[in-house]
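User: Batch of two.

Assistant: Item 1 of 2:
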Amino acid sequence: MITLIAISRLTSMKGNYRIMKNKRRNLNITKNRMRVALLLVLATSTIGFAPAFSTSAWASSGSYSINDVSGNYVWHAEGWDLGGTNGKQRVPLSAVGLVTYTPATGTFHVDLILRLDGTTFNNLRDGTYTVDTTGHGTMTWLSGSGNAKQIDFYIVNGGAELKWIDTDPPGTAVLSVSGTMTKQ
């Protein structure tokens, strides 16, 4: 209350009124200032509690499991690979397809339409996946040539999306690919 009284004394008033001359006017001003102060306290309290209810707070609480990634997701990716006439040039890569996750077995099946350096390929693969309590997951499989492949992802919007990046082991040809998988 001392702070509100001090603020009311510092605030200029319209006209040349003295504080004690018009008690009714002063009483209304004080009531309005109290209402504004209470609204500010309420708004600040509400803003302070908001992070506790956000989905990003869930990620740090350790609430995710492999069951949060299940069913069909639409895969979309863009990036760069090695190719060209000598196999050492950067060439564009893009993909779209369907991934089916089965949490009971920790496996997935993917059917992709892959576009690499202007050529379209159909890519069918099966592999395994894991999800930890922070919402971080990995997918691993073997490429058509037998190379180990891996991507790392994070669960977004309660499992409605997965944001991922290619994290193949060293020695593979992919330069950089990332994308989103959206729950179908």
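Item 2 of 2:
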Amino acid sequence: MLGTRIDAFIVRKEPKEHGMTRFIEGFEDEETPGLPVVIIDDVCTRGNSTGKAIDRARAGGMVVLGAICLVDREEGASQLLRKDYDCDLVRIFTLEELVDYKKSQSGTLETALVG
């Protein structure tokens, strides 16, 4: 195996009603205290769901190093996470960048806007 092993976990919006009924799946409870993690989200708008994931990870004893999102819709997520969660948000793309790219490729927005 090349590189460094990266473990993954899921922070659920609601715990399952069966099984372990936990918000965090992927680690045993005794594995999380002090564990450094990065929260990854697909799309960030206002940052509320990413903030909840940060809260739940911290409640499980994890040390949140930061957050990453694939697409930042630039509607306040970065500011909210900095102010309310003391957490920096790194984005891969902004929605505007994706729209601009789509326009440059075909001149239409039909499939550029997501969700």
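The radius of gyration is 17 Å.
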